[in-house]
Structures are given as structure tokens and as C-alpha cells.
Amino acid sequence: MATIVSAPDLTLTHPVTSIDLPTGGRLDAAAVLALRGPVAAAVADGPVLVLLDVSGVDGVSPSGVAGLLDLLRVVRSRGGDLRFFGASAAVQHAFTALRLDTVARIYGGHDEARGLLATRAS
After folding, report:
1. Residue 72, C-beta contacts closer than 8 angstroms, at least 6 positions apart
2. What angle, rounded to 10 degrees, do the helices at 62-77 and 29-43 form?
3. pLDDT tens-digit profile of 72-97?
């Protein structure tokens, strides 16, 4: 099994390119597979912050969870981070039940996921 590297306090030494990947409906193997290409292309040149809007997700399959963990591993292995944002009871339930909140978190919104709210508060 692959090791997931935690990156709660992400500090990138290279310029960060943030890409937003929308998702909705059911988060399963097919949905994650559709995200894999854009994520792999984004991290090809180095660290990147990938934001995934999960607000439209109404169901999560075990293969969807496994796929998300793989995407997280791919992005973090290149020095970047994959951050989830948006209100989704299905995703929140999966994160809590499977204790995924120990390796990633779901941010309230886009600006919070990018870290813009923390910047404005200081």
C-alpha cells in the first residue's frame, strides 16, 4: 500500500499554479479516472496546488476514495497539495468514517482552500 505524505502546512519553493477541478454527482472510479489526466499534467512541471470542488458530490464509492488517495499521493510526491473544498455530506461522511481527515481536510470554500483567507486575516 502506498504511503500518503501529510502536508498540512504546505510551503512551496516554486511558483504555485492553482488548478480547479470540478466534480459532481457520484465520486467513483470513473470520476477519479477523469481527474487523473489533468492532475498528472498539472504536476508534471513541479509543485502545484490542486483544488477539487466536492460540493456537488452526492455519493462516494470505495473506489472513489481509493482514487482520491492515489491523486493525493501523486500531487504530494511532486511537492504540491490536493485540497478539497465545498459542502458535501457524502464526502464529509466518507472522510470522517474512514479517518481521511488525518491526511487531508475539506475546506469551507475556494478562498480558504487556496489559503487566501489566512492571508487576509494577517
Report:
1. 4, 82, 103, 104
2. 10
3. 999 999 988 999 999 899 999 999 99
